[in-house]
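Its record is set out here:
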Amino acid sequence: MGFLRGLGGRAWAYVRSAPGTYIWLTILFVTTVALHYMSPAFEQQFLRQRSTNLRELSDNPVRVLIASAMWIDGGDWVPYALLYTVFHAPAERWLGTVRWLLVCVLAHVLATLISEGALLKGIHDGIVPHSAVNTLDFGVSYALAGVIGVLTYRITRPWRYAYAVIVLLVYGLPLTESPTFTDLGHFVAALIGLACYPLVRGRGKAWNPKETLDALRG
C-alpha cells in the first residue's frame, strides 16, 4: 500500500506540474464522452459549427478557432492522454504554462489559417470542389505538432538534430504523396514549433540522452 500511495503521489505531483495540459485533457475527456451520446446526424451538424472550415472561419473566426481545439477527431480519448503526457506535459514543465500555451496557440491558429488558405486557393483554381468549404476541420493535432517541434530544443546537440530530422520526416512525408490540407497544416505546425526558439532561451539545461543512458547502466 505504501508503494501505491507513493506512486499515486508522484503521479499527482506530475499532473500538478503541468496544469494547463491536464485541464485541457480533462475538457477533451468531457467533450469526447458527450460525442458518444449524440446521434450521427446531430454530431455532424454540431461539429460543423465548431469546425474551422472556410464557411465558419469567414463568419465566426475567433469562436471556431477556440472551439475546434476542444474536440477530438475520431472520438478516442486514450491515445491523446498518452500523447499529452509524453509531449505536452514535459513542454509545459520546461517552458512554463504561459510559453507552452503560446506555442500551442501559434501552431493551432497559424497552421489552421495557412492550411485553410491553401484549401481556398484549391477551390478557386478548380482543383478542389466548392463543397469543400464545409469540410470538417477540428481537433488538437496542430497544437501537438507545434509542441513536438519546439521540444527539439529540449534535447542537447547532436541528438537535437536527429530528433528534428525525425519530426520533419514524420510530418513532411505525407506531403509527398496525395497530400491533404491537414497534412500541410501538420507540417506547418511543426515548423512553427521549430520557429519558437526565442521562447526557449533561458529555460534551463537541455536534456542529454547519453547521460540518462549512462545513469541507467549504473
